[in-house]
Structures are given as C-alpha cells and as structure tokens.
Design a protein that fits this description.
With 83 residues, the chain is mainly alpha-helical. It contains 2 helices and no strands. The chain has helices at 21-60, 66-77.
Length: 83
C-alpha cells in the first residue's frame, strides 16, 4: 500500500528569503530605465536614418533651385505618416 505522507524532502514551513522593498523598486526602475533608453535610442536612430535619406534626396534635386526644393518638400509631406 502507498504511504500518503509527504517525504522528508518537503518542509511544512517554507523558507523564503524576502527581498527588501527598496531593492525591488530599484530593480524595477533600472529595468524601466534601460527599456526607455533603448526605445529612445531606436527612435533617434530611425529618425536620423530617415532624415539622412531625405537630405540626400533633397540635395540631389537642388540643381533645379527653388522648384526642386518645393517638389522635395511636397514629396516628403505627401507620404503617408509624414508630419
């Protein structure tokens, strides 16, 4: 017949090491700060990459003078999602 009692490996009183509340707050702030910094750097990189491509395109069309600049601005602002 099987013995229904728990083996001695399991203890009735669980032993846990409580983390200090300040340590929990600091770790959450660090994780949040690293995540926010990463998101900020990705945003800056994305804007810089797009701005660089736009600047090269506009510089290439400057041979036409004012007409080239106006057409470049119209092309930039005519894209979906442009501000």
């Amino acid at each position: 017949m099987n013995d229904p009692s728990q083996p001695p490996l399991f203890l009735d009183d669980a032993i846990s090491v409580p983390l200090a509340r300040s340590f929990q707050k600091v770790s959450l702030w660090l994780v949040g700060g690293v995540g926010a910094a990463t998101a900020g750097m990705l945003l800056v990189f994305a804007v810089a990459t797009q701005s660089g491509a736009d600047a090269e395109r506009i510089a290439g069309s400057q041979g036409d003078g004012l007409k080239g600049l106006i057409s470049a601005i119209a092309a930039t602002h005519g894209r979906p999602g442009a501000l």
